[in-house]
Amino acid sequence: MVKKMNKEKVLFRKFMILWLGQFISAIGTGLTSFGLGVYVYELTKKASLVALISLFAFLPSILLGPLAGVLADRYDRRLLMIIGDSFSALGPLFILFSILFGKIELWQIFLGVLISSVFSSLLEPAFKATITDLLDENQYSKASGLNQLAGSAKYLISPLLAGMLLVISDIELLLMIDIFTIVITICTTIIVRKGIAVKIQEERHSFIADFKEGWNEISKKEGVKVLVAVTSLMTFYVGIIQTLTTPLILAFSNSAVLGMIETLSALGMLFTSFVIGIISIKSGYLKMLSKSLFFAGICMFFFGLRENIFLICISGFVFFAMLPFANTSLDYLIRININNSVQGRVWGLIGLISQSGYVIAYAVSGLLADYLFTPLFIEGGLFYNSLGKIIGTGTGRGTGFLIMITGLLLSVTAIFLYHIKSIQKLEKRGEICI
Q1: Average of pLDDT values for 348-366?
Q2: Pick from 99, 125, 102, 82: which is nearest to 32 by CA?
Q3: What is the C-alpha to C-alpha distance for residues 336 and 429, in angstroms, rounded to an integer?
Q4: Helices 90-100 & 106-120, crossing angle to 10 degrees?
Q5: Nearest-angstrom CA–CA distance, 138 and 343
Q6: pLDDT digits 0-9 by tens, 112-122
């Protein structure tokens, strides 16, 4: 028993080293993401082009997720993380050199973001499967909370830091810091890789066969497919607010205020991620998932309601505070119900299906804001003299109205989610997996 406990402590320390690398990497990624969003919006004043950056950053990881998942089960997961991190640095390097050695164009920014995203797609399935390699089942919820804490760094630390740096410097500095954080992350992964046995498939099948096996694992029970489909709808709603926050704030303020608002809002995610990281949640996952999504939708409504910094910060704080509860519920129920040998490909497939909502949101949210909702609230628009008297008028009010509608839809969806019978079986371990 003592020997087992000592082994668990050693492996958890390795996880913490790996987690630290991901935490630092998230800060660097957040700096570049924030800086490029501000740079493109100030250059073009188009929410659709800001959304296009998010699309290029996110789409490869979704499309390549299943392939990356198969690779994570076939080969050394830590080695895949090192390769993914190393080559993902080519993206910010390309953008940096384009700026330093000539006048950069939008296509160069999009290409650099795309390059980085393609190689970063190797990371997530390998990292999630590595958690199962390192930790015992009773440590999964704690690891989930800590992972969300690391992920929150790009919303909490990066915006404030980037907003301050952009006042005294340019986008070049943010790109250089991002590249440096990637180097640190590679070093932490190399350290963790030593002394851990490589778990790979002894019998190799075709990639198509591996994809099919992963899908069969997901589709064993009806509730699994239903929940994954519903989750894709949830990610669509969340993707709307993620994409439109930058144009919403910059329509009446500047990058420094945007960074401050994003940081203060993300404190909610930091707080609840920390709470989840130090406590063990043993039951009530579906109720927690539904309630957190319901209140997140209400917060989205108030987030877009007025051009009021205080209201936006409070709404943003509570919105981000709800996300770790929802993510932890989903993560835990998935992890305890799938075999470790197929975790890589299952995570990849689930990412492809459930997070397709983000892709759709990134593709359409900017277009909807620029060409449908914004014209409604400028002079001569349909709502200029009616609803505009309540929520305000101007170039950012259409974006706010779109966020409000999306928030209400998220809350309604959360109510329906709780009453779906096949999903209610999630509370019985081993009966269903998502």
Answers
A1: 82
A2: 99
A3: 8
A4: 160
A5: 17
A6: 999 988 888 77
Q: What span, in angstroms and rounded, lies between the C-alpha atoms of 175 and 39?
A: 12
* Residue among 309, 303, 317 at smallest CA distance from 266: 317
* Rounded (5°) CA angle 217-124-430: 30
Please, how many CA atoms are within 13 Å of residue 24, restricted to the half-sphere of its CB?
18
Q: Two tokens at 390?
A: 């309540």
Q: Which residue shows structure tokens 């050695």?
A: 101
Q: Give the residue from 201, 215, 33, 186 showing the smallest Cα distance to 122.
A: 186
Question: Torsion angle of alpha carbons 55, 60, 63, 69, nearest 10°?
Answer: -140
Whole-angstrom distance, CA of residue 434 vs CA of residue 423: 9
CA–CA dist 347, 104 (Å, integer)? 37
- As a whole-number percent, the residues of the chain with pLDDT over 70 amount to 80
- Distance, CA of 357 to CA of 350 (rounded, Å): 12
Distance CA 32, CA 15 (A): 26
Structure tokens at 153: 């760094």
Nearest of 242, 258, 246 to residue 165 by alpha carbon? 258
**Using the 8-state DSSP alphabet, how is residue 370 labeled?**
I
Closest C-alpha among 92, 255, 270 to residue 181: 92
To the question of pTM greater than 0.85 for the whole model, the response is no
Residue 416 token pair: 């329906």
Biggest distance spanned by C-alpha atoms of the chain = 75
The first and second tokens of residue 133, run together, are: 């390699």
Question: In residues, how long is the chain?
Answer: 434
CA dist., res. 62 & res. 354, Å (int):
9
Cα distance between residue 36 and residue 239, in whole Å: 18
Cα(423)–Cα(116) distance, rounded to whole angstroms?
A: 36
